[in-house]
Amino acid sequence: METGQLSVDLRRRIGRLRHITGFVTTYGQEVDPRLSVFARLWHVKRVVSTADRLSGLTESLDGAKIERLAWLHDLNRWPFAHNSEKGFFDQAANVREYFLSRSPTIGTQDIDDLVGIHLKDPSVISAEGRIVLFADSLTGVIEDPLFTVCGLNVHPRIIPQSVSDMLGFSLLADPWYASCFQLAEEFHRAENPDVEFFQKQFHELFGALLSEFIDVHRIDSLEEGQEDLFAIARTVKETFMRPVIFPLNNEKVCHSSWLRQEVMPWYLAHVPDARQRLLEIDEDGFVELVTQIGGSPFTAREFIPDLGYVRREAPEMAFIGPGESRGRAL
């Protein structure tokens, strides 16, 4: 799905997400090209495609509105996204001001829907907004475990059986195990990882797992059972991703506490119009700015995420380790 229905400025803002954290920080691609696959832009594109898939299950919806909301729903992010925003920035509270000041052609109903999507409250948004909210939630609960296994190199046995049961698939079972192993091996063992191959195969695997979820849960309409599906996404995030994966990803790989406790306070104290700039610059621009200010205590290399953390510091968790070979799936 393309962005042709949107203004040139909005398309530029969508393009900015190529250098904004999705699952992992994107800064440092010249040192580690693998970081490009984690950009928020690709998450948004998967939300768009998921919303398109879901919208086909319900009649009488405005497909153009669904596509528009999906493209717009994550534009107002700071560099490093959740890893820098927590305690400093409320994305939902900012939505109205962000679009009214930058894109006055966006209608008030769309803005109301975008606010509700960020509040994760299906009761206050349109039917089209609910499709996008569910697409965003469903995209996250599929792609986050996949990125954990294939991108962070965590063995899929970390995913509890209860979570696999809720999702309707297990990454410990073929064909999913074999696909994940191939991607993780390319990402973590190849001397020169084929980033384009990983990106293409990851997206195809995501699509196959999305189809599996839809088939297992017998989703032939979103008019009934929507609350149960939201509950699955919410439970997976709250019982597994938030307590188990996010501390590893955000803290050990992406330096979240350092960003919030040291970098952001210093930046906000030393940069004019600091908060407004954070909605315009990307991670490359932020690092260039914050490291070149006179007296800056930061170096550019400190911002690069540590994709080798699991293999080096927690080898017992690693999917691909020294001498690892393709194991038998369950």
UniProtKB/TrEMBL annotation:
Top-rank taxon of the source lineage equals Bacteria
Specify the species. Actinomadura bangladeshensis
Identification of the protein by name: HD domain-containing protein
